[in-house]
Prior knowledge:
Helices cover 24% and strands 0% of the residues. The chain is mainly alpha-helical.
Amino acid sequence: MSDRPEGAPLLRVINADATPEEVAAIVAVLSSLGGGERSAPRRRPEWQSASRRMTPVFRHGPGAWRASGLPR
Length: 72
């Protein structure tokens, strides 16, 4: 997805008077900015799901055990 041809350098120093320390500092700053691949979003464990808090309350009484297994 880049306009850069295969094998071309990622960084080009234009100032001929740049010292190796200056180039290293620029490379360190640019590499700390990231721009790499995004990490996968963290999957939330099912036991923390908000939908678990919305479970129906099963009442006790005659036939309650049967009603607890039937779809709503």
